[in-house]
Design a protein that fits this description.
Helices cover 70% and strands 0% of the residues. With 175 residues, it is an all-alpha fold.
Length: 175
């Protein structure tokens, strides 16, 4: 049972995880994007591992003089995948994928929320969350108090920022 779990992880996850971390060392599973990054990392690790397993199997088939056959007693494929994993983890480590602070992503193009649709949606979602919290605080505050006036001003500012973002985006689409 233990060998099957180890072999399954080696075939379906570990090499892809190493390659994913080596390719994207700046990805962290931290607060604002933790679920998205975790899902991306796991999905990409699975897909890349399966692809690497197929490629490794094809390489072993074409280079082996007597042909390659995957037997539990002949762990050639597992050794090949373990070597790929080791190299990928060493590259990921060298690129800073396992440091506490992520490496600079200088190769990434910085965009503002108005330039990138995904970032725009995240900004609008963030504004909506802040607005809901403010509305909750407003409901809990005393009507007519100074605190409720400040909260209402905050809500009005959030609404104007949201409207401004949407108006700018509509103008970009119109031109």
């Amino acid at each position: 049972m233990g060998e099957a779990v180890l072999a399954g992880a080696l075939i379906f996850f570990v090499p892809g995880y190493g390659v994913t971390r080596a390719t994207f060392p700046e990805w962290r599973v931290l607060f604002p994007l933790r679920r998205l990054r975790l899902l991306e990392t796991v999905a990409l690790s699975f897909v890349v591992s399966v692809a690497l397993t197929v490629i490794a199997g094809e390489i072993l088939l074409s280079t082996s003089p007597s042909g390659f056959q995957a037997y539990w007693t002949d762990p050639v494929l597992e050794m090949f995948l373990a070597a790929i994993s080791l190299v990928a983890f060493l590259v990921a480590w060298a690129r800073g994928a396992f440091r506490e602070t992520p490496p600079d992503a200088h190769h990434l193009v910085e965009t503002t929320p108005e330039e990138d649709p995904w970032e725009l949606m995240q900004e609008l979602d963030r504004l909506e969350r802040v607005r809901r919290r403010a509305m909750h605080r407003l409901r809990r505050s005393e009507a007519g108090s100074r605190e409720s006036a400040q909260i209402q001003a905050e809500i009005d500012e959030i609404d104007s920022r949201r409207t401004e973002i949407l108006r700018e985006r509509e103008q970009e689409y119109a031109s």
